[in-house]
Amino acid sequence: MKNLKYITLSVMALGLSSCVGSPSHISNGENAKAVGHVNWQISNPINPEELINKPIPEDSVSIFFLRPQDNDPEQTSANIAINDRFQVSLHPGHYTQVYSCSGINRLSAEITGLKTNDLLANSIDFNLAPNSNYFFYVDVDNEGNSTIQEVTNEKALEYLQDKSYQSHQITRVVPNCPVAEPKPIPPVVEPAPVLEKEVSIELEVLFDNDKAIVKPQYYNEVQELAEFMQKYSNTTAVIEGHTDSNASDEYNQKLSERRANAIKYILISKFNISPDRLEAVGYGEQRPRATNKTAEGRQLNRRTIAVIRERVRVDQDGNQIIN
C-alpha cells in the first residue's frame, strides 16, 4: 500500500511539474522532456495535410490552432480551450488539431504563467459549419496578452510549413455532438395529368317532374364525375342544370339552378371535391336534348351536364398559362 501511494504521488507530481516547469525536476532536450525516469516527446513530425485530408466525423468540425515560432519563455505557453474544455498548452512553433461539434464554438487562449485557470478568458465565439477544417492563429505579445484569429486555408498552409505537431497534450475536448434526426424523405408526387381540351359529360341523373332531388340510384353517375376530377386534379367543373318546358320560364330557371346545386352538393359532401373547383348554373328549358311533346322526351330534358376544363393560371408576368 505504501508503494502504491508513492507511485500515485509521483504521477501527480509529474502532472504538476509538466505544467509548472520547475527547473529542478525537468530536463530538456531538443524534442524531449523528462521528470525523473519519465520521458515524453514534445513534438511529432506529422504532416498537417494528412490531418486536413482526414475524414471529419459527421456533424463535427476539425479545428487547428497554430502558433508562430518566437523567443517567448516557457511560461507563455498558451492554454487553449474550446467551450470551456482544455485542449492544449500550445508552445511556440507548434500546432495542434482537435474535433468539435459544428455550430457555435467558444475558443479561448490564456498564457500558463498567469495561473488563472480561466478557460473562458479572452474567449471568442465562432459559428463553424459541419464537416469543415478551420484554422486559428494564436499569438502572445511581449506583455503576455494572447489573441486568437481565424485565418484562411491558404494562409494556414503557409503558416504550417515550419510548424511541428505538439504531441505533449492532454485534451479534454469532447465533441459529444447531438445526433441529427434524419430528415423525412418527402413523397414523390407525380404531376397531375393535363386535360388537353374541354370535356362535356352528360350525367344520366334524371329528375322527377318539378323535383331537384338526386335519387340514390344515380349516385354512381356522380361518383364517376368525381373520379374523373380527382384524376385531373387541376380542373374545374361547371354543373349545368336543365328542365323540360312545363311551368314558366322563370320557374324553370330556378328549378334548373336547384338541380345543378344538388349535384354540386353531392360532389362536395360525399366525394370530397373542393368547392372552389365547382360552379353551378341553370339554363331552365333553353337547351332541350329531346322533344317536350312526349313524356319520354320531357324526362330526358330533366338532366344535368358537367363541363370540365383545365384550371387557368397566371405566371409572374401576368400571362395565362395552363399546366
Task: Briefly summarize what is shown.
Mean pLDDT is 81; it is low at 1-29. It contains six helices and 19 strands.
What does this structure look like?
The chain is of the alpha+beta class. The chain has 2 domains: 27-166, Immunoglobulin-like (Sandwich), CATH 2.60.40; 199-322, 60s Ribosomal Protein L30, Chain: A (2-Layer Sandwich), CATH 3.30.1330.60. The chain contains 6 helices and 19 strands. The strands form 5 sheets. It has a 6-stranded mixed sheet with strand order 4-13-8-5-11-12. Strand 15, helix 5 (249-271) and strand 16 form a beta-alpha-beta unit. The longest helix has 23 residues, at 249-271.
CATH architecture of the largest domain: Sandwich
Total domains, how many?
2
Measured by DSSP, the beta-strand proportion falls in: 25-35%
Largest sheet: 6 strands, mixed
Query: Into which percent range does the helicity of residues fall?
Result: 10-25%
In the CATH hierarchy, what is the class of the largest domain?
Answer: Mainly Beta
Shape: rod-shaped
- Stated plainly, the CATH topology of the largest domain is called Immunoglobulin-like
Mean pLDDT metric: 81
Question: What's the quaternary structure here?
Answer: single chain
Distance between the termini: 87 Å
Q: Would you count the extended β strands for me?
A: 19
Q: Indicate the structural class.
A: alpha+beta
Total helices: the number is 6
Low-pLDDT sequence parts: 1-29
Radius of gyration: 42 Å
What string, H for helix and E for strand, traces the elements in order? HEEEEHEEEEEEEEHEEHEHEHEEE
Strand order of the largest sheet: 4-13-8-5-11-12
